[in-house]
């Protein structure tokens, strides 16, 4: 009896430790973009992720500072291979092996990064690319898979391809009628079959905001998750016995129906990007973003999936942080997808599991508390003003000045000041960066007003782990070069 009691005591102790070690809430996943002039330092960003229960992170490229910061953190990582590398990686297995060695194996072995998947390309079949990446994508996936196997990582690291929702369609609007886009149907079947046969998964990006952005007549309520107890949107879609009350469920299940139609329904489907921006468009604001993302977070935490896939898949929120150096070709909103501002401060409240609120970044250090503004005695009608503002906004982010945006209602003087300050902050508050033909002056009085925030940039130089991403470094270098010309008098504003 004594030995049995001792064994039971050990079993009980192990059980207690096991249940203590289990997470007390559903894990969250986020896209960590690094295209910023003053990126939030890696150590601060990782702390932000962990403080808010994010246990998975997706990187669009193998950013060194981000990967090093993710080492030994327990955060599972999806690392991206950019579209511009698809051609070279698809050409030979050796090229794929070299990429895997430098961007996967090295970070796992040297830094303890828990890399779980490689995203080969990013929306390579997007219609707007006009087939540019179609021929290279599947061979690149095959070569990366072979390289992972050769590196001994075939079971630990899986391959996926993040795709835009435009790879499938439903001609009658019902999810059950879903099928792949005719021009890439054969390619999609071959790609998914390879992923399925090799332990990979499919990743799909779904953007209800873009549906609203593209079509002014799109039913607004249908873009959001309905609140509990609220009546369904009038745009809800009846599909047999199933009523689809929001665009996410209908969109995701359209893909599932397409997969089932081709005998590929066994593959796992992860949501690689979904979110709502807060600026740069009339529908991109804090209220709308909070409404959408709270509904999304509630679904993730509850584990509630869609009618065809009742268990919620991994969902990577887009995005963790704003990125002021991103391309704005799709729209000014592209730089404002973050749940958090560029500095890790929450844009709005979000409730996590147990009613806990999201927490801000800790340990952020800023440049001096000063701003560059239009001189009080300078006239906004000065003929040099348009050129100076245009110059400032060419090299800094002025997307918040657009109509319907957070700074869209500024008067003329404040509008000019905002542009000057963005350039000044982007140039690390260099004194001569606030010298627009003697039209500007440095002030210590915060010119922010209403919804418009005049930013002070992060002091990235005060963080040991900060190394700018390649994109951010290139943008910063270009800005520095232009500044040097301006400051030496070669370029006259």
Automatic annotation (TrEMBL):
Which BP terms from GO are recorded? carbohydrate metabolic process; defense response
Q: Which PROSITE patterns does the entry link to?
A: GLYCOSYL_HYDROL_F17 (PS00587)
Cellular component GO terms, alphabetical: plasma membrane; side of membrane
Cellular location of this protein?
A: Cell membrane
Q: Which reaction equation describes what this protein catalyses?
A: Hydrolysis of (1->3)-beta-D-glucosidic linkages in (1->3)-beta-D-glucans
Query: What UniProt keywords apply to this chain's record, in alphabetical order?
Result: Cell membrane, Disulfide bond, Glycoprotein, Glycosidase, GPI-anchor, Hydrolase, Lipoprotein, Membrane, Plant defense, Signal, Transmembrane, Transmembrane helix
Top-tier EC class: hydrolase
UniProt record similarity statement: Belongs to the glycosyl hydrolase 17 family.
Q: What is this protein called?
A: glucan endo-1,3-beta-D-glucosidase
Q: Which organism is it from?
A: Oryza brachyantha (malo sina)
Q: What is the lineage of its organism?
A: Eukaryota, Viridiplantae, Streptophyta, Embryophyta, Tracheophyta
């Amino acid at each position: 009896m004594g030995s049995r009691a001792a064994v039971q005591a050990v079993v009980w102790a192990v059980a207690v430790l096991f249940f203590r070690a289990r997470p007390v809430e559903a894990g969250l996943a986020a896209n960590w973009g690094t295209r910023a002039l003053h990126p939030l330092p890696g150590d601060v960003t990782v702390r932000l992720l962990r403080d808010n229960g994010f246990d998975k992170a997706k990187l669009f490229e193998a950013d060194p500072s981000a990967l090093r910061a993710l080492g030994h953190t327990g955060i599972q990582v999806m690392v991206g291979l950019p579209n511009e590398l698809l051609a070279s990686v698809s050409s030979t297995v050796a090229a794929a092996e070299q990429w895997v060695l430098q961007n996967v194996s090295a970070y796992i072995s040297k830094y303890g990064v828990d890399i779980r998947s490689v995203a080969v390309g990013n929306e390579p079949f997007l219609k707007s690319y006009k087939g540019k990446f179609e021929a290279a994508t599947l061979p690149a996936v095959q070569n990366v898979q072979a390289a992972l196997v050769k590196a001994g990582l075939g079971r630990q690291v899986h391959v996926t391809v993040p795709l835009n929702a435009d790879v499938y369609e439903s001609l009658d609007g019902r999810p059950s009628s879903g099928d792949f886009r005719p021009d890439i149907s054969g390619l999609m079947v071959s790609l998914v079959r390879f992923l399925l046969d090799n332990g990979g998964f499919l990743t799909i990006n779904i953007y209800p905001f873009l549906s609203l952005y593209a079509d002014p007549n799109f039913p607004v309520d249908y873009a959001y998750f309905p609140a509990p107890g609220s009546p369904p949107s009038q745009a809800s879609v009846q599909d047999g016995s199933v009523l689809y009350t929001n665009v996410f469920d209908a969109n995701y299940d359209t893909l599932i129906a397409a997969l089932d139609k081709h005998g590929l329904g066994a593959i796992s489907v992860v949501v690689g990007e979904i979110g709502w921006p807060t600026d740069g468009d009339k529908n991109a604001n804090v209220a709308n973003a909070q409404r959408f993302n709270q509904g999304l977070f509630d679904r993730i935490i509850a584990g509630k999936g869609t009618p065809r896939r009742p268990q919620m898949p991994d969902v990577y929120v887009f995005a963790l942080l704003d990125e002021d150096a991103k391309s704005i070709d799709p729209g000014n909103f592209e730089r404002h997808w973050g749940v958090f501002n560029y500095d890790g401060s929450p844009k709005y409240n979000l409730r996590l599991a147990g009613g806990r609120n999201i927490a801000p970044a800790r340990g952020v250090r800023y440049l001096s508390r000063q701003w560059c503004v239009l001189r009080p005695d300078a006239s906004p009608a000065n003929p040099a003003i348009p050129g100076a503002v245009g110059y400032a906004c060419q090299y800094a982010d002025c997307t918040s000045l657009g109509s319907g945006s957070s700074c869209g209602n500024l008067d003329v003087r404040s509008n000019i000041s905002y542009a000057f300050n963005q350039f000044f902050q982007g140039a690390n508050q260099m004194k001569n960066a606030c010298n627009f033909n003697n039209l500007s002056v440095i002030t210590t009085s915060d010119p922010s007003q209403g919804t418009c925030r005049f930013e002070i940039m992060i002091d990235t130089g005060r963080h040991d782990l900060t190394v700018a991403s390649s994109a951010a470094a290139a943008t910063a270098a270009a800005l520095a070069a232009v500044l040097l010309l301006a400051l030496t008098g070669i370029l006259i504003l």
